[in-house]
Design goal:
The protein is an all-alpha fold. It has one domain (3-65). It has four helices and no strands. α1 runs parallel beside α3 (31-57).
């Protein structure tokens, strides 16, 4: 893959995941690994938030929205 295309994909991936947590940045050697680790962290945080929202409003609210 040409370098410019790779750079564009990495820039887009960074836009999607948002800022990289400093702890993740220190733990992973490559930018690609950091992006994937941050994406996984974002998913885990989203799942925690979803569980909290479900506790607050109940699972029935999700069924009503569908």
């Amino acid at each position: 893959m040409p370098m410019q295309e790779t750079d564009q994909k990495l820039v887009r991936a960074l836009e999607l995941v948002g800022p990289i947590d400093p702890e993740i940045a220190e733990s992973w050697a490559t930018l690609e690994a950091r992006i994937l680790a941050q994406a996984l962290e974002n998913v885990e945080l989203a799942e925690q938030r979803l569980r909290k929202v479900q506790e607050l409003v109940g699972d029935g609210a999700l069924v009503e929205c569908a």
